[in-house]
Model the fold of this input.
Amino acid sequence: MNKNNKKVNAIIILIGNEILSGRTQDANATFLSKWLNELGVRVEEVRIILDEQKVIVNCINEVRKKFKYVFTTGGIGPTHDDITSESISKAFGLKYEIHKEAFKILENYYKTGEFNEGRQRMTKMPSKAKLILNPTSGAPGFIVENVFCLPGVPSILRSMLGVLKNNIIGGKPIISHTINLRTVESEIAKPLSEVQDKNKDVEIGSYPFFKAGKLGVSIVLRSEDQSKIDDCNSQILKFISKKNIKQINKD
Done:
C-alpha cells in the first residue's frame, strides 16, 4: 500500500480529575481532533483519566503500541498534582530530570526572582524528550517517541500546535460534508443505510438536533476522497427529494 494512502490514527488522553468531576469542561479534544483531521490523522479514541501515576503509566503503555500518535493534555504545570511528566518518564523507563534547554527557556522568560521552585518544576521531564515550544506562557510541552504531551489550558495548547505540524506525518486529509434536514432519524434510517452499503469508503453519521422547537437530523459524510463524498451526497439528496424532506441551514 502507498504510504500516502495508509490510514494514520491517533488517540487523545485528557488527564485531570477536574474534568472527571465535571468542574472543568474540556475543549481540547474537539480542537485537536479537527486539527489532526486536517493533517490526515484520524482520531479513533478519546479517554479521560485520573491524575494518578499508575493510571497514567498503564494507559500510556497500552495505547502507544496501538496508535500512531498519542496526545495527552494536562498535568504538566508547576503544582504537586501535575504528574504527567513524571508518569510519562516511568512509562518509558526514562529518567525524570531537568531538561537543560527547557530550564534555559524559562530562566530567560521570567524576570529575576520570578523563576521560583514551582516554575523550575515545569522543566523536569523524561530524559531525551524533545521540546514543544510554547509561544504563550513559556513552559514547553514535550515529545517522547510517539507521545505528545501538551498543557490543559486550551488557549495555550492551541498556540503550540503550529510548531508541531512538521512532526506529524498523516495520510490524506479527511474531508467532511454536512447535510441538515428537517426530519427525524426513523424517517431516513432505511434509505440512509442503503446508501452506506453502496459507499463503503465514506463514513456516514446521523445526528439528531433540536432547534427553534423543531427536530432535525444532520447527516455527516467523511472521506479522504471528495468525489466519493459528492457521489454519496447526490444519492442522499435524491432520496430526500423523493420523500419531500426539507433541507435546511442549521446555522
Observations:
- Confidence is low (pLDDT under 50) at residues 1-5.
- The longest strand covers residues 214-223.
